[in-house]
Each structure stands twice: as C-alpha cells, then as structure tokens.
Amino acid sequence: MTALTVNGRPLRFDIDPETPLLHALREAANLTGTKYGCGTGDCHACTVIVDGEALRSCLITIAEAEGRYVTTIEGLSRDRSHPVQQAFVAEQAIQCGFCTPGIVLAAAALLSENANPSAAEIRAALPNLCRCGVYPRLVRAVERAARVARREETISAAPAPGISAEDAARAVPAMDRGD
C-alpha cells in the first residue's frame, strides 16, 4: 500500500505502485481537477505540486510519490482565494478551462519560489500547452498574482465559489425526497 499526503490529507492507495500519480488522483481519489492530456508529459495539463515543485503527474508513479506532499487544484484553496486563481479570473486568462488547473498549479509553484518573476521566467515556468492560445493573458495574470501575493495590489473579490463539495453531496433532487 502506497501512502502520501494529498491536499493536506493522508491517503493510502492499494493499487499497483507503478500506477501514474495522475490515474491514482483521478480514479482512486476522485480528484478530477487534474486533467489527462497526452499521457507523455508534453502538454503539462496534469501538473500538480509535489513537495513544492510543479510536476507532471503522468510521469511520476505513486511509488515515486510515496511519503510526499501533493497539492492538486482542489487543494490550492477551497474558496478560490489564492492570488493565482483570483488573477486568472480578473485577467480573463481562462478560455475552455481544460489546461487551467495545470497552469494555475505551475504558476503557484513558481510564485512560492520567486515572488517577483520576470515575464521570461513566467513563460519558462509555464510550458503548458493551451490550445485556446491565452499565453499573453497568462503572463499578465501571473504578474498580477505576484503583485497580489506581495500585497502591492488587491483584487476586489474572489470568484464566486458556487456550491461546496459538501453541499453538493447532500443535495437530493426534490422528486427523490418524496415532495
């Protein structure tokens, strides 16, 4: 059994230790924010943070992740108040959203290491493939997130979080309640 900490919670996986972390997160832990893109590490859609480093979860096995701390998009901030999440919305750096979790996590890892990255450093830290082509907005969003994290700027409000996972799990359609 493989043990690691995911989004602050200890998890044990009773699956083949050679299973890619991507599949363990999506299929065994039901953390579907981590996206399967190419399976070869080229697109970076599956990026997660492992011990503070942005890694492609399709290229690391759960055996290699044993004992490590993994953060997925679900664990970055429950209320979407992380500066990167706020700045991505404010800068409209999201199109279809498929690549967004991986890019957000890569940006968060960058900002945890470098509080004031240059545009060139941002582009180097975000090799993610975005088929919608929002690259200029990504750089602006990360620059803005850095200013927010350094408390040089504020964003008026976090994006509306919608329905929490707990509330969604408790919701029962009216016809099933006997109404």
UniProtKB/TrEMBL annotation:
Would the keyword Transcription be found if you checked this record's keyword annotation? Answer: no
- What InterPro entries does the record point to? 2Fe-2S-bd, 2Fe-2S-bd_dom_sf, 2Fe-2S_ferredoxin-like_sf, 2Fe-2S_ferredoxin-type, Beta-grasp_dom_sf, Diverse_Oxidoreductases
Please report the name of this protein according to its UniProt entry: Nicotinate dehydrogenase subunit A
| Residue runs in coiled coils | none
Its keywords, alphabetically, are: 2Fe-2S, Iron, Iron-sulfur, Metal-binding, Oxidoreductase
Supply the EC number(s). Answer: 1.17.2.1
What CDD domains does the record tag this protein with?
fer2 (cd00207)
